Amino acid sequence: MDATPLYGGIEAGGTKFVCATGTGPDDVRAEIRFPTRGSTEALALAIEFFRTQPKLPSAIGIGAFGPVDSDPASSTYGYITNTPKEGWQNTDLVGPVRRAVGVPVVFDTDVNAAAVGEHHWGAARDVNTFLYLTVGTGIGGAAIIRGKRHHGLMHPEMGHILVPRAEGDDFEGKCPYHGQCLEGMASGPAIAARWKMAATDIPAGHIAWRIQAHYLAIAVINFIVTLSPERVILGGGVMQRSELLPMIRTIVLDRLRGYIRRDEITRHIDSYIVAPALGDRAGVLGAMALAAEAL
Amino acid sequence: MDATPLYGGIEAGGTKFVCATGTGPDDVRAEIRFPTRGSTEALALAIEFFRTQPKLPSAIGIGAFGPVDSDPASSTYGYITNTPKEGWQNTDLVGPVRRAVGVPVVFDTDVNAAAVGEHHWGAARDVNTFLYLTVGTGIGGAAIIRGKRHHGLMHPEMGHILVPRAEGDDFEGKCPYHGQCLEGMASGPAIAARWKMAATDIPAGHIAWRIQAHYLAIAVINFIVTLSPERVILGGGVMQRSELLPMIRTIVLDRLRGYIRRDEITRHIDSYIVAPALGDRAGVLGAMALAAEAL
User: Which region holds residue B143: left if phi is over 0, alpha if psi is between -120 and 50, else beta?
Assistant: First the structure.
């Protein structure tokens, strides 16, 4: 009767966990959310959720906050590794879930999971090579290349590219490693530190948004010329400020100065640099999409 | 007797053409070189070269100066497109060679061809995801991802990433499109314009090389965090200055500040950021490698 397999997803975020089962965004059959405290508690709640469903999922995907080990060939695949987060260092997420629920478990970073979600069900359904950038507490990027999540030697750490300063901006930067990398200049905490107020309290029209758009546009240009994506998706909490996306598009077009002659960019920038389509379920839907991809 | 197919290669450079046949770097059976004048002449000389060999190659690869159309699905695949170079605009290289020699012809940018050459026979034989950057009259980059030349929407234009200025450098930049992009700050002509002498005349120990190493190191960092390559190869005329490579390695390690925890980078930088291995035949060997890859 029901040919579509049931997917399970775990969004393992630094502040909240979301677990769900379903076949896609229009058919989420069950869902729980809880704040991220200790890892033992979180794993127990997630496992109980899946085991008490009327039907077990065919596979479970986990999209986790990092740093993680997402190399399937590694002995610590599925671990959150050297995180500063208390009680989460070197925590195996995949093993306990697989053993307790008894289905295949696929694992990746939260940003890679979100990108896979957009590829399956969201803003990147019609392309195979694209970039997903999330701008929030941190800045992370995922590249899907010819349909596959790109890893390479480690996994990309796109939030740490080094970008030219915005004119007149003398903020020292907030990244403990690189100071003035993209994340150090344009993450939510960077904005708050530069302007001494939460990003959400900064009014529309404030110069903060022009500076913010500068850093994100420069980063997007660098990703475009390096990765040659067919689409760029900009998500995350900071991007909820609706004035940002149009400003970024304008600066990208202006700074590229016609060097890239592709109609997809020069004539259709509004459908080239876009917002995610999956809204506030993007994380858990991304995790479910990891499961869908594995089946 | 001889099971290895014979490969043909055409390095179609902006200043010189090189044509060769052989089975690899240790077995180049014939070669001609001539200065790049008109396209009709160049094509006639190349075709004559292959047709007069004792044995026709099984396939011919062409690595061409750009901009090119390297999309096999395009009706102008194999064309040099909107180049400023007199007599070369909208020139079909693939069609005439295929018709006259009667073998399959594969086409890509010179930098992609060089990367494929290093993958087959050079400094990247043992990896499948790597970056090849050439620093000369222009700056171009090629990404090989899971063994394949990366194209995406257009093809990467890595020379045009935007990078922070070196301290104390007030050079206005030389890229007609972006001024201060990487190519605008660190190509051979940019060095010459900044210091008012040819790069080859600038002595060792001159601050020019520290500034040059800064721009290339920042670019390499950005490529590392974006593409997560297993190796970075730095070639091209400017990289012939032997002091550059060690300086770049030092700056890359210093600026990454331990954020990327991979022994391949932190402990073995000398085998992570390397020079090409194919020397002054890199161009035509790369073209031959395109043919090898296609067979």
Answer: beta
Task: Report, in angstroms and rounded to the nearest whole number, the Rg of chain A calculated over CA atoms.
Answer: 19
| Strands in chain A per DSSP E | 7-12, 16-24, 27-35, 59-64, 68-69, 79-80, 91-92, 105-109, 130-135, 139-145, 148-149, 231-235, 273-274
Residues of A within 8 A of B264 (CB-CB) are 153
Tell me what ipTM this predicted complex has: 0.93
Rounded to a whole number of angstroms, the CA Rg of chain B reads: 19
Percentage of chain B modeled with pLDDT above 70: 99
| Residue from B231, B193, B233, B232 nearest B212 by CA | B193
- The verdict on B258 touching A (C-beta cutoff 8 Å) is yes
3-class DSSP state for residue B223?
A: helix
Q: Which two tokens stand for residue B291?
A: 């043919």
Closest listed residue to residue B149, CA positions, set B73, B233, B70, B64:
B70
Binning pLDDT at 50, 70 and 90, where does residue A55 land? very high
Give the CA dihedral B241, B245, B247, B253, nearest 10 degrees: 170
**B161 to chain A: nearest residue by CA?**
A222
pLDDT of B86 higher than 90: no
Identify the three-state secondary structure at position B152: coil
User: Model-level pTM?
Assistant: 0.94
pLDDT of residue A2: 58
**B145 min Cα distance to partner chain A (Å):** 8
Chain A residues with CB under 8 Å of B90 CB are none
Nearest neighbour of A218 by CB, restricted to B82, B162, B257: B162
